[in-house]
Fold this sequence. Notes:
By secondary structure, the protein is an all-alpha fold. The protein has helices spanning 3-35, 54-59, 63-96, 102-110, 117-127, 134-141, 158-183, 187-195, 200-238, 250-259, 264-288, and strands spanning 38-39, 49-50. Helix 3 crosses helix 9 (200-238) and helix 5 (117-127) packs across helix 9 (200-238).
Amino acid sequence: MNSKSKTAFILLCILPTLIIFGVFIVYPVTQVFYKSLFSSSGFGGGGEIFIGLDNFKELFTDEIFLKSLKNTGFLMVVVPTITLFLSLVFASILSFGNLREKHLYRTIFFFPSILSFVVIGILWSFIYHPNMGIINEVLTWMGLNQYALVWLGSKDTVLWAIALVMVWQAVGYYMVMYLAGMDGVPKELYEAASMDGANVVQQFFKITIPMLWEIIRITIIFSINGVLNISFVLVIVMTAGGPNNSSQVALTYMYKQAFVNANFGYAMAIAVIVFLVSLILSLISNKLTERETH
């Protein structure tokens, strides 16, 4: 088979994938950018009016949008940081600890990641309930009544409460990824380090982290972008953006503008900003964690 035939065969093999990618990814994304330049209800009827960048100008004077963008940024920084740290810690304990119930713990930790986001939101809404919730019940039983709060009804605690749920949901997923990486690290490296006098902590930072670095880079990007999806569902289910928009995130505000206020063009402008913020954070994290490979 000559080179032209090989090229034609390869193109023929990847053509279905390219078509699917173009129809379901490229076309919708370009439509979002295009629709953001219009004033539109999004429900047909020929009501589209071209307004250029006016939607974007209005966004940056919209206090609710700015608050939702701030909340989104908070979750995209805090949740991945705590989640990945705990995932590494738990993976190290299960990988290097002499625990007889290793497989049981792996299953228990991984279980929340297979639950529906809606189910998780409903479950934790009951846990946080001010009167019937288990958290306040335990605090009251311990005599710590002053710490029994309205967790989802206070602007000071609601975002942290949602962040905790997101961490709980994702820790097991990333822990399993790190465990798979740790299982692939040659045991001879740890034995040699032990013979040289390195303790467990030194082995973790000098061997485990460097050997897992590429996996860690991938999980950082996954977790940053994963926050967008789960935060949307959890906020809708648990707080609907309240109290007083304190838990409003960019995607819930976009949904409200599109399907409640019938301001479709404005919602698409929000989607563009969220896309750009997500892309920029992913590029920054990728650049900051870049290392030379030899």
